[in-house]
Design a protein that fits this description.
The complex is a heterodimer of chains A (114) and B (109). Chain A is an all-beta fold. Chain A is built from no helices and 11 strands. The chains are: A mainly beta (114), B mainly beta (109). Chains A and B meet through strand 5 of A and strand 5 and strand 10 of B.
Chain lengths: 114, 109
């Protein structure tokens, strides 16, 4: 079944460390997104990519960077992790057959920065 | 003011009850509307789209009121398996999709 996968699923790291979260999809979708979710807040968009050559900042991109290595892969990096980046991170893709409105999410990565 | 606002709940209802959630949005130019369901520690999944004419899917009914800028979700005959967080989602065009913080529902036996 076509899917969106994320690795790692859980990660504990220390302040100042560099960390990469990876996302892969077999849906064949061209649009991919990275969100973070904090308790009591909605999903906040970090970065989005319309295709391999098109990457855009979302509403909370400071402290993050991304790489779209291929249509199916979109990685999120924290160059120097800080405790307030502790959150649940989701990757998502859009279905071009539905006007890009429906988003399909990966299972999430729970990141803790000590 | 948040762009999409929901009552966080929690709503605690017995099995078989009818429960309704509302969501308000601030951008009058918003184009499409959705309800997503999120189970504890899991990813959000699309529950249903919300059309101007309203739509129904089994026990779930969604409605849109553009004049008052709110959407609603009605769940009839609640089941234990309906316990989850329900996210109101508004698309303002192109990439810009705004997720509400969610309304928590607990259905008890």
């Amino acid at each position: 079944d076509a899917d969106v996968t994320q690795t790692p699923r859980n990660r504990i790291t220390k302040t100042g460390k560099r960390i990469m979260l990876e996302c892969s999809q077999t849906k064949g979708h061209d649009r991919m997104y990275w969100y973070r979710q904090d308790p009591g807040l909605g999903l906040q968009l970090i970065y989005y990519s319309f295709d391999v050559k098109d990457i855009n900042k979302g509403e909370i991109s400071d402290g993050y960077s991304v790489s779209r290595q291929a249509q199916a892969k979109f990685s999120l990096s924290l160059e120097s992790a800080i405790p307030n980046q502790t959150a649940l991170y989701f990757c998502a893709t859009s279905d071009p057959r539905k006007g890009y409105n429906e988003q399909f999410f990966g299972p999430g990565t729970r990141l803790t920065v000590l | 003011r948040k762009e999409v606002e929901q009552d966080p709940g929690p709503f605690n209802v017995p099995e078989g009850a009818t429960v309704a959630f509302n969501c308000t949005y601030s951008n009058s130019a918003s184009q499409s509307f959705f309800w997503y369901r999120q189970d504890c520690r899991k990813e959000p999944k699309l529950l249903m789209s919300v059309y101007s004419s309203g739509n129904e899917d089994g026990r779930f009914t969604a409605q849109l009121n553009r004049a008052s800028q709110y959407i609603s979700l009605l769940i009839r005959d609640s089941k234990l398996s309906d316990s989850a967080t329900y996210l109101c989602v508004v698309n303002t065009g192109g990439f810009k999709t705004i997720f509400g913080a969610g309304t928590r529902l607990f259905v008890k036996a």
